[in-house]
Write a structure and sequence with these properties.
This protein is α+β, with helices and mostly antiparallel strands and 295 residues long. It is 22% helix and 22% strand. The protein has seven helices and twelve strands. The strands form four sheets. It has a four-stranded antiparallel sheet. A four-stranded antiparallel sheet has the order 2-3-4-10. The longest helix has 19 residues. It binds a DNA duplex (16 and 16 nucleotides) through helix 6.
DNA sequence: CGGGACTCCTGCCAGC
DNA sequence: TGCTGGCAGGAGTCCC
């Protein structure tokens, strides 16, 4: 599943297809994804125009002209495929959609299909079904969005914020970074990458970076690392790992885009560091790091 | 309350 | 070649 950069890549691909268009029809292959879909899911979307498509953390938010918002999360294996009107090839920015549309939505794991007013088909496919969709009335707080922390690419993520978030935190740094209540959008891969870049051990107790009265340099370095890692990944159009691909189906970026993730047993890439990348398990998830240069 | 384990689900791949 | 166990980008829920 996509982390923030992959979700942002999907959003950018869907914007020219969805924004300003009216949803003509919605087809569901089943009544639920991770959670049950609203019983009137299709009815509340059909005939509605998509005013804008935005992102909050790893959620996509399609604002409708009905004063409601369609909320979508891709979970681990969710993806969208777009089929151009009449099977024609369509060039939308960097994205090409050229698959024949006759089979759209008929795959075993195609769960939701949106048909737009220009004939475009958008298919949501999700083998593991950890993704979710919901419709919320604008202005009504949604339980899934309410507790989310700061957007890592916005100015609200800074050393002060981390200092406050880490103060008194007994959890290891890695766990703190993927805690969506503190920073919203970092996942397993980019948390590893950011810690590597900042030379911080994933095992370090978060509060040890918030002991002094003022945020120290290492927190600045961590903020810089998070930003750099995420923005680079967005520039590259999201990373490819197993089943994730760009919205047009072409692989996003190149395989060796990671400095530590999935590099167990390989040499540390830092100049002059003789360390080897190690894999450990933290709260049930893989962490990759260099024990030599990450402290 | 904070933090970690468990859980949902399917596909894939290494190893036997 | 075929089966089995482990692992996978998320995150809500439960339990201590």
């Amino acid at each position: 599943m996509p982390e923030l950069p992959e979700v942002e890549t999907v959003r950018r691909g869907l914007v020219p297809v969805m924004e300003g268009h009216t949803i003509r029809a919605v087809r569901l292959s089943r009544p639920d994804l991770r959670f049950p879909l609203p019983g009137d899911f299709a009815a509340r979307l059909e005939g509605r125009r998509v005013e804008s498509l935005s992102r909050r953390a790893k959620y996509l938010l399609a604002r409708l002209d009905s004063d409601e918002t369609l909320l979508m999360h891709l979970g681990m294996t969710g993806r969208f495929t777009v089929f151009a009107p009449g099977g024609r090839k369509l060039n939308l920015g960097d994205f090409y959609y050229e698959e024949p549309a006759q089979n759209a939505g008929s795959g075993v794991h195609d769960h939701v299909l949106f048909e737009l007013d220009d004939g475009s088909l958008i298919v949501y496919t999700d083998p593991r079904r950890f993704g979710l969709m919901d419709i919320v009335r604008n202005g009504t707080p949604h339980p899934l969005l309410e507790g989310l922390g700061v957007e890592p690419l916005e100015p609200e993520l800074n050393a002060e914020h981390l200092w406050g978030a880490f103060r008194g935190k007994r959890a290891p740094l890695k766990a703190a970074l993927i805690d969506q209540r503190l920073i919203a959008g970092l996942g397993n891969i980019y948390a590893c990458e950011a810690l590597y870049r900042a030379r911080l051990s994933p095992l370090r107790i978060a509060s040890t970076l918030a002991r002094r009265a003022r945020p120290e340099q290492r927190l600045e370095a961590l903020v810089e690392a998070i930003r750099a890692v995420l923005s680079r990944a967005i520039e590259e159009g999201g990373s490819t790992l197993r089943d994730y691909a760009r919205i047009d189906g072409s692989p996003g970026g190149f395989q060796s885009v990671f400095d530590v993730y999935d590099r167990e047993g390989q040499p540390c890439l830092r100049d002059g560091c003789p360390g080897m990348v190690r894999r450990i398990v933290q709260s049930g998830r893989s962490t990759f790091y260099c024990p030599r240069c990450q402290r």
